[in-house]
Amino acid sequence: MLDQASAITSGPVRQVHDFKSGNEAAALAARDIGFHVMGYFPITPSTEVAENLSKMQANGEHDIVMIPADGEHGAAGICYGAALGGGRVLNATSSQGLLYALEQLPVQSGTRVPMVLNVSTRTVSGPLDIRCDHSDIYFVLNAGWIILMARDPQAVYDMNFCAIRIGEHADVRLPVIVAYDGFLTSHQKRRIERFDDADAVKAFLGEREDPYTALDPGKPVTFGPYMNDPDLINNKVQQHEAMEAARRVIPEIFAEFAELSGRDYRTVDAYRMDDAEVALMLLNTAAENAKEVADRLRDEGKKVGVVSPNMLRPFPTSEIRSLLKNVRAVVVGDRGDSYGAEGGNLSLEVRAALQQDPDNQTLVMSRVYGLGGKDFYDADAEELFREALTAAETGKVEVPFEYHGAYAGDGDAGPPQGLPPISKEEVSRGMATVTPNPETSKLEVELKPLWEMTTTPSRIAPGHGACPGCGFFPMLRQAYNVLEGHIVVLFQTGCAMVTTTGYPKTAHRITYIHNLFQNGAATVSGLVEMYHERVRRGEIPAAPEGEDITFIMVTGDGGMDIGMGAALGTANRNHKMIILEYDNQGYMNTGSQLSYATPFGHRTSTSEVGSSMSGKRFHHKDTPQIFAACNLPYVFTASEGYPEDFMRKMSKAQWYAQREGLVYGKVLSFCPLNWRTPDDAAQEVLQAAIDSCFFPLYEVEKGSTHITYDPDAIGRRRPVADWLGMMGKTRHILAPGHADQLEMTEQEVEKRWRRIKIKSEHPEL
Amino acid sequence: MTRDSSDRSGADFFEIRFESIGGLGAHVAGKIVAGAAVLRMNMNGSHFSSYGSEKKGSVVRSFIRLAPADRSIRTSAPIEEPDVIVVFHSGLLAHPATLSGLKADGTLIYAGHENEIPEWLKRVPKSAKVVRVDAQTIAFEEKSRENAVLIGALAAAVPELDRQAVCEELEATFAGKNGHIVESNGRAFKRGADEAEIIENVGRVEGDVPTMQSHPAWGYKSAPIGGVLPTPGNTAYNDLQTSRTGWMPVLARDKCIDCGMCDMVCPDLCLVWSTHVDADGKPGVTLDGIDYQYCKGCMRCVETCSTGAITREAELPGMADELRVPLFPGLAATAGDRHA
Predict the structure, then answer these.
(1) Whole-structure pTM over 0.90, yes or no?
(2) Which of A42, A56, A482, B308 has the maximum number of C-beta atoms within 10 A of its C-beta?
(3) Nearest residue on chain B to A414, judged by CA atoms?
């Protein structure tokens, strides 16, 4: 990277030009700061911070301990724990990830433990939208964290350095968020300057000094006591005072940073405001767009300017009051609504700030714009300026609050109506006959030949947006071939959800629900119980035995990390439903980050391969065994490459889910893009995974284990290396110098396979 | 929102838009071109792509905004009125949005086979420069990707770019990989630059191409509340043809035994079956063919076919229309609609 950048010096410190996105800038700052620990969980659009750091780590560029969490709540916990230890800690998240971590944020600020959290801002669900607005960061306004805003990649880089100094300041001692616009900044490359002088950076940052740490046994302290009234309010006064101290400290640190870098930040960015009569107030990228328009309007002789806070907490109240003192009208744009408050948070706080000034006469208009990443063009900024100009001229505000840029619709126009519903009869064709064997008390299944299944109407329509070769759809098609009657599905967030329901289209021909992947299993369990209760009350007609609606929760392997708690709760309650996991060995929807199901040594975008790192550092999670330990009626593994085996298991799953309770199935599902194979290599790769016993096909039926395909027994056992050699993500394991890694993989595979085998040989295991 | 087409806000920028589909490398190509300008040509610049949750094979746009070194780049909005449009897949020319906003004196570069002049080129300004390069063939022959060929053609066609600088940035981007990738990309780049040809007299538009205004299908007065979609299976209206990158599976009926294996593995759910009753009264099924409206060309059906009845064939213009067996006869597709 250094060789691509040309050396320049604009501040007292040596710097280089580079061409980087906001996420890259955050990662470079992290490297240059030299954090001790990063706890993280992938979520678009902030994921690249961890990805870039993983790449750099593989090349030996830093030694930050990177901890992939089970979810953002876990990540926040990791960061809190690490920060209690006294070192420097980093996290990056967005949207629902920030909200999932939210519960932890006041814990950290209330106990006064600094760290840095980069937030690449994104719309919160639902419906799920991955693009930029500020609805996520607005949720955190009351969390007690300092919130710095970074309007471009340069600011992202710079604010990370400032965040360390501000948060760790003895008078402050608070965690700090650096918030920048998702995609617009996180993914947009700009020219930046970055430091090329480690000593100067070190001198600026200084050492972190903690009054208390959890890693000094000679000085025992209790963190987080049980504190009720009358004490808590006093703790909060201290917190309030820390935030007030930050008002003073932030400009001081900005000034020091300007000396170091030559880049001078103010708490509020004011553009052409000296004599402005009309202003537009916006956060981050939209404000930058508005500056272009302000220049043009100035050329027309209009006295306009742009105001844009560089921090939201503490809120720069007095700066805003003084900037707007002589402004006749301001439009405050909010990229997020505070529903029912007649304004987004920024405009509400601006109004509150002005109310403190008895002489202020500024007319304030509130506009909600750019939600869900709706682009903000020059024309939008111009329209908002014109509204403010009109108000300034007429002296009155016609519309105090409204949405800008929404579309009402065009009469009866809409997307195509869709396909006719599929009747129960059309899909109840007896493709699998399930019969209990009274002697074994197990189920037996007879399948119709595959050709007969081809004319079963598919509950999933073509036209979905998945990648070529995607293994999820063969799996779903096979499952639907044998499942009878009505089905309601819930898909947790993941590739299958995103590619089947891009608004205003849906590939689902049956009732479908999405919920975030923390909580799909719990959501379906609630729906199942509502169904049975409404049947009991006679509100929904009762079905004959075995013909109730079948409820299926579909998840990727990533959903069985973050959603594991909800899934285990659901399993322990044994609701009548199926959890069906398509395991493609990673968070493929967000660009192939490691999940706990990613096997040891495999390359992902957060477990890169290089001179200093060689893929994932720990073995894959044995999810079927975890569910087997819940004593469910039926647990199975399958592969979309073995349709008959999978369909037999799926028909048993339906039988058990109708009559006895929860079924869990894990299906190995091909992902050519991120396994780095040709699109048409599914059969051989899946086969090798099974024949090498990496992915044994078995079932645990009423507690007893049965191997449904035994490569040893039929002489098809192959070395794990055969399978690893087929995929770009694993080929490095076979290279010279990786013998240890291969051996550890072989040992783990053999250990788990033998355990399954022994279980299968004992009826009580 | 007003959008005055005479308002050329980006007049002092030089703006390039790539129109592509996921998997052809448009994003990386944009990064290389913008990186060359910023790091090797002493310009200011920004680069970004239209991200959604799009997967491999769906529409991707990549944007490059360049300016003199002392001109700050503040806007992050997409490029609406580009000086140059590079189209990575000729099928995309059928969508009006592909050429939206191209300036009258702009440049269009498109990937097309020898002699391929799609009728849609009439939407280009008369005064614009039109350049064709056979990116697919060159990429295939040089074991490279379309993106290297196209940025070669771009660097040669546009005087604002320094061909050597772009080539160096291309090399630097892949320097960490093994040497043959750098070499094959270098050859593809050079051939793109050398073999691109100017196509004369195809554009019919006077002045700039108007900026396309598009609205969503529903608005807040018409959409069902809560984002609910009471439209089961309406992705069936999508046309995914452009997801294929030059190859298609073709069924030879005489070799097919209608075993049903391909139906188990087809991710695109695009195989068309019918039922019949044999002369001896037994029911049977027939694989009638493939609905290419949905087929993304993964070839898993070819992989699984035990009789060689489905084979991988080079897709020539018009072939898919000719061989297509519709899964839902009478259903009119929404061309190119693939919002994932």
Answers:
(1) yes
(2) A42
(3) B217
